[in-house]
Amino acid sequence: MNNNDLIFITNDDGCKAKGIKILNDVAKILSNNIWSFAPAINNSGKSHSITINKNIKIEALTNQTFKVEGTPVDCVVFGIKYLLKKKIKPKIILSGINYGQNLGLDLIYSGTVAAAREGSIQNIKSFSISIEKNSKPTHWNTVKYYLPKIIKNIKALNFNNNIYYNINFPNVEIKKIKGCKIVKAGKRKPGEILTITKLKKKSFFLKIPSERKIHKSAVINEDEYEMNKKFITVTYHSYFSSSENNISKKLSSSLRKIVEK
Fold it and tell me: Which of 13, 71, 162, 213 is the right S-S partner for 17, CB 3.0 to 4.6 Å?
């Protein structure tokens, strides 16, 4: 990558989240030209929602950092248009780092993933990144160590920009990572655990917590199974049909070198 390549960062946890600060550190390893457009508040689970027929307040925090009172997709749509007016276009979009893994059917609901999907629709190479949430301290250094290598390797393959990549990191120390695998999205999904709080006779609160059930049916080469085995998992997707052949084989060959044992 060129040190002047424009990297666009966003997330769904909000502009004050720890994850986007770590992502900014990662982006600085890859380039000295970073622009950030992130939601003002947490937008987890907003999927590909976009704001229609309503004004969105946008505040410049620095010359290249913006707080957007909208969804992750709003951030990408606005940010790209803003940059194009300046006659510049992102080379890469990085969305995350989400605090909590996005696996299986989470990809449909995740605002983090949707931002990357929107980037690919706009013909920009895009990545969504998440780290496992558990009871242990978060090993952000594992992401900072491996993510630049993963991005460089994938970018070097020159696949179509309409392919976007979803990357999940197990929450372990650098030395405990077993490898980096190209996998399939599994069957994990939100909404299987519900909490109900009764208010009055005819009303109640319903809440879907971020916790998920562990799918014992998860199998080898699925994202949930392999991440639980301490592999960094990568799935690739496209809203459009892709003309690339042997993508999985090429990616696997490239990323296998990242973790050397």
Answer: 13
Q: What CATH number did the domain enclosing 97 receive?
A: 3.40.1210.10
Domain that holds residue 151: 6-255
pLDDT digits (tens, 9 = 90+) for 144-201: 999 999 999 999 999 999 999 999 999 999 999 999 999 999 987 665 666 777 777 7
Count of domains for the chain: 1
Q: pTM of the entire structure? A: 0.91
Of 121, 123, 126, whose CA–CA distance to 96 is shortest?
A: 126
Tell me, yes or no, whether 78 lies in a domain. Answer: yes
Tell me whether residue 49 is in a domain. yes
Closest CA to 163 of 221, 101, 245: 245
Q: Are 116 and 10 in contact (CB under 8 A)?
A: no
CA distance 91 to 83: 12
- In-domain check, residue 1: no
Amino acid present at 171: N
Q: Where are the beta strands (DSSP E) in the chain?
A: 6-10, 33-39, 58-62, 65-68, 92-99, 125-131, 163-169, 179-182, 195-200, 203-207, 231-238
Side chain identity at residue 30, one-letter code: L
